[in-house]
Amino acid sequence: MLICAVASLTLIAAGALVMDWYVLTLDGLTEKVAIDLRSVHACVDHVCMTKPLALLSGMFPTLSAVTLWSSLGFAVLVAFQAGARILTGTAYDSFTKLGYMLSLMAISLAVATAYMFGPEPQSVTIAIASRIDLSLQRTWAPLTLIVGLIAGFAAIYLAVAADSSDLGATYKPVTVNPDAALHGRARPPTVPPAIARQQTGISRTAGAPRDQAGPGRAHPTTEPSRREQTGLRAAPSSSEPPREQTGLLRSRPATDPSLTHTQPGIGPAAGVRPRSGPLPPAPEHLRNRLQYVALTAELTGGGIDARREDGLSRLVLWRDVVGVVVRRMPPAYDGAAFVDIVSTAGSTLRIVPWTRLSGEPLDGDGDDRPRAVVEHVLARCPDIIDSGEPAQLPDLDTLRAHDDRLA
């Protein structure tokens, strides 16, 4: 930044104040005409004179004055921004934006003054009161000024840009040694955290003793019944009936005397999804290879609440569903059947064999599950009914084209 600023100030000062823009030498140094951005210098018959540019006709006098002052104003702005960065460590963004505009304007004016609207020989003849038949020669001054303006543009950009030292610092995490933090004291015993009691919603037989929870209760002499934790299945003992999953009510036999009366909000579950076998895991060669794959999908009365493999959660309402498509994967992807539930853009859900379904029950598992999903969707959205066997996609290109149509 500092090098660009110094180079810019030097080149702008040389091109705008020191160097001549047009020169005509007739007889050595005794007969010479030179024009810069401020005046006309002429040495004729061993007499040197300086005339203002206002005596010249055309656009050159006006453009030269505007080019001179815009270049000098930009040089002042470059010096200010460079000084602010050096002294305070930061520069002003508003001044940098102003400098961008001023530099582009000064470059355009310099090009117009030097290469489009130069001084005319007839007007120079009138200004110096001496006839000139030859054209004036352009010097390196315009190019010097333009290079200086470009260097200034780079300088004000670097003044507000982040320094490499600001971006080069690496994050070093703070680690604490637990043994060193004790300062010679004995480590306290590790106590496992208490497990919160889960509300399973399973009704208890009237008159059965209530299990008292708490750390101070006496341990029973007999082995207690095995209790599942949420999300896990425990093998039932031989003396007790198998327990249902957490959150489901187990239907009781017709001879159960407790069925003669019901409590508000508690009763036998009707129409609850039967527990199915374990779902097949996602094949390793298909992980993150398919689009729109739903890892979990909850079927509700209002729609489908799903979490996709790409990490996005989608709530698809039944009224937004416009179609349901059943296909089989290409042979390279094991030919597995899948169901695409098409709704609004970006919310397509793909039900695959390893998608975990919950909520409303479906009549079908395994190979029959895609048909059950379609029947459930059609029951909710009867306007999109179609029939037929799922067609297998021949290759991966066809699968990609199918995905593009659903995007």
What's the layout of helices and strands?
Elements: H1 2-18, E1 22-27, E2 31-35, E3 39-44, E4 47-52, H2 60-88, H3 93-115, H4 121-128, E5 137-138, H5 141-160, H6 164-167, H7 178-181, E6 294-299, E7 303-308, E8 313-317, E9 323-328, E10 337-342, E11 349-351, E12 356-359, H8 369-380, E13 391-392, H9 396-406
Parallel strand pairs: 6-12, 9-13
Antiparallel strand pairs: 1-2, 1-5, 2-3, 3-4, 6-7, 7-8, 9-10, 10-11
Helix pairs in contact: 1-2, 1-5, 2-3, 2-5, 3-5
Quick summary:
With about 400 residues, this protein is α+β, with helices and mostly antiparallel strands. The chain has helices spanning about 1-20, 60-90, 95-115, 120-130, 140-160, 165, 180, 370-380, 395-405; strands spanning about 20-25, 30-35, 40-45, 45-50, 135-140, 295-300, 305-310, 315, 325-330, 335-340, 350, 355-360, 390. It has two domains: about 1-165, Butyryl-CoA Dehydrogenase, subunit A, domain 3 (Up-down Bundle); about 285-405.
